[in-house]
Amino acid sequence: MALNYRIIASINFIAVLLSVPIIVVGIWLSGQIDSQCVNLIQWPIIILGIIILVVSLSGFIGAFWKLPKLLIFYLISMLVLIVVLAGLVVFIFVTTNSIGLGHHEPNRLFLEYDLDDDSGWLKQRIESYASDRIKSCLGSTSVCPNLNQTYGSAQDFFNSMLSPLESGCCKPPTKCGYTYVNPTNWISPISQTADIDCMLWSNDQSQLCYSCSSCKAGLLANLKREWRKTGLILLITLIALICVYVMGCYAFRTAKTDEIFSRYKQGYT
Questions:
Q1: Of 15, 37, 92, 186, whose CA is between 20 and 30 Å from 234?
Q2: In sequence order, what are the residues at sequence separation of 6 or more whose Cβ sits closer than 8 angstroms to the Cβ of residue 190?
C-alpha cells in the first residue's frame, strides 16, 4: 500500500511540473506588445496555470502523507481543470481560424492585411477597442521607430518580411500609392483614393496608421500567430495532463483496493 501511495505522489509531482509551461506561456503572451495593448486571454491562462499548480501540490501532499480526502479533492478538481483547459484550447483554435492570413501586393515581399478578410469573435472584440486606446499603446512602443534603423533603402524595405503589426500599423497600405521616403515617412500621392485608411495615414510619428483598419487587421494577424503558438503548447500540456490524471486515478484505485483487501485479511485472521 505504501508503494502505491509513493507512486501516486510521483505521478502528482509530474502534474505539478506540467503547470509550469501553462504559467510560462501565459507570462510570455502577456509580454508581447499586441497583448499588452489588448488584454484578452493571457491572465486567464496564468491564473489557470497557478490553480493547476496548487491543486497538483494538494494531490502530491495527499499522496505523500496518505490523506485520501485530499486525494479525492485533487482528482475531482483536476478533472474540472482539465475540462476548462480543453475548452480554452478549443476556443483559441476556433477563434483564430476566422482570422485572415494576409495577401500579397505587387513588388512587395511582406503581406498586406485587410480587416474585411477577418470575421468572428476576435475581430468584434478588437473592433470594440477604441482606436485612441490602440494608438496610444502602439505609439508608446518601439515597433515602428525600429524600422527606420533597420531598413535604409526602399528596396530593402519592400523585400523585407514585416510582421503583421509592422505592415498594418507602421506604413500606409500599398494600394494607396504613397512614395517611400523611409519606413515611417511617405509622400502622399497627388490624388488619394477614397479608401479611409489612405486618408488616415500621417507622417506624424505618434499617428502613422495606428487609427487605420489595416492596423487592427495587422493586430489580429499578430494575435493569431501568438495564440496559435500558445494553443499548441497548451494542447501538448493538456494531453500530458490527461495521461497523468488517468495514471493517478488507476494508482489511487489500486491503493484503495489494496487497503480494503488488507483490512479484510486482518479481519479474517
A1: 37
A2: none
The bridge status of strand 185-187 relative to strand 179-182 is antiparallel
CA distance 131 to 117: 19
165: closest CA among 38, 45, 253?
38
171-185 residues labelled b (16+ CB within 10 A) or e (exposed)? bbbbebbbebeebbe
Query: pLDDT tens digits, residue range 206-217?
Result: 899 999 999 999
Provide the pLDDT for residue 1: 44
Query: Which long-range contacts link 82-88 to residues 24+ away (Cβ below 8 Å)?
Result: 82/238, 82/241, 82/242, 82/245, 84/48, 85/22, 85/48, 85/52, 85/234, 85/237, 85/238, 85/241, 86/238, 88/41, 88/44, 88/45, 88/48, 88/234
The SS3 call for residue 112 is: strand
Please tell me the distance from the alpha carbon of residue 64 to that of residue 146, in angstroms, as a whole number.
54
Question: How long a stretch of residues is the chain?
Answer: 269
- pLDDT top residue among 1 and 99: 99
Residue 129 confidence class, pLDDT cut points 50, 70, 90: confident
Q: For residue 142, what is its C-alpha cell?
A: 518601439
**Is the per-residue pLDDT at 267 higher than 60?**
no
CA distances from 165 to 21, 116, 209, 251 (A): 26, 16, 11, 49
